[in-house]
Amino acid sequence: MLPVMDNPSTTSATIAVPKTVDETGVRRNVLEELALKILYTSVELTLRELATRMRVSLPVVQEIFQSLRKGVLVEIKGLTEGTYLITTTSEGKTRALEQLSQNHYLGPAPVSLPDYVQRVRSQSVRNFAVRPDDLERAFSHLVLSQPMITQLGTALVSGTSIVLYGSTGTGKSSVAEAIPEVYHDRVWVPHAVEIDNQIITIYDPIVHRPVEPQPSQLETDGRWMLCRRPRVTVGGELTIDMMDLQYNPVSRFYVAPVQMKANNGVLIIDDFGRQRMRPEELLNRWTVPLDRAIDFLTLAGGRKIDVPFDLFVVFATNLDPKSLADEAFLRRIHNKIKVDFMDAQQFKEVFHRLCGQYGLEYEPVVVDRLVTMLQKELNQPLRACYPLDIISQIRWAAQYQGIKPHLDPDTIAAACHNYFLAPA
Description:
alpha/beta; Arc Repressor Mutant, subunit A; 5-stranded mixed β-sheet; 18 helices
């Protein structure tokens, strides 16, 4: 099993560096085949360079080298900076090509599935101690009522899931996107996991945010990346296929599904109900994971594997939740928060902040007039999106005219005229 790590919330967090092949938790043939493929595609490498490419310690690579050399698959070309310079033999090239026909994975050495499962459970999103200060910090850029912040904090303590629902333009997406900022600790994410000689890549530079500087490979197991808790956002592009292992028939290895990449973090499903699949398809797919915190994935040969489903799922929708799921499933989503329209004071505060952000002088009387115009003349609720949209109209008009943007009754009226549909 994997070595015990320090508390992931501390800056000294490390994972013990495996010094032997057995200590990696991965079968010898998996590491030898990876080393042979990397060496073949690189022509020649020093043992130290090979260790860096595989993200394993030099003693592990030396052990792999001795085994490959014994099988006449590699040979020594020379000595560079105190380590052997090696290349593949003719037999080694043949074996490497055979392995490349099985899969083209050339990344860091994988970790074992049991080690991955244990690591995810040890740094569970439910273990994070959510406090009011965390919420105040994460949502400081938004104007939210104290009752809503308390609701959000209570939901996050559960570490399970939440539905943010309400009319369009009320700020649900902004609230959802701020939720990951509540977590200020770090977690370990593996580059890849190995199961029955199959490789599943997990670390995704688009999704995962590494801590800089990363711990040295001399200090920690380089097969893991120290990252902020993951934040994965999907919207209308989400399909049922994206929730299972993605097998590439060309590279012949797997890419982890969105929920596996989000493990120990937050998965945001924006515009829920507007995906290309029916809402009940997604909900049925995740009935067991949401209940038991275990997900079942299928390999190409039909074998099913179970992996942790350890993430906080945020469903954001402007549709009525009752129209998206039956009562039985809604009970599985323990937290439901309605994001409603703003009151006048909140609206003015957002407008004030945005004026400061975009260099406009805030005019209270003008904004009071805007609030009246929206509510009485245009018969519009005070949506959270309106301040930015109206200020954007003012800035665009000023840019077109080559003047400095400013607030006055005329610019506000012109912005509203451009933004809102004319009355029927």
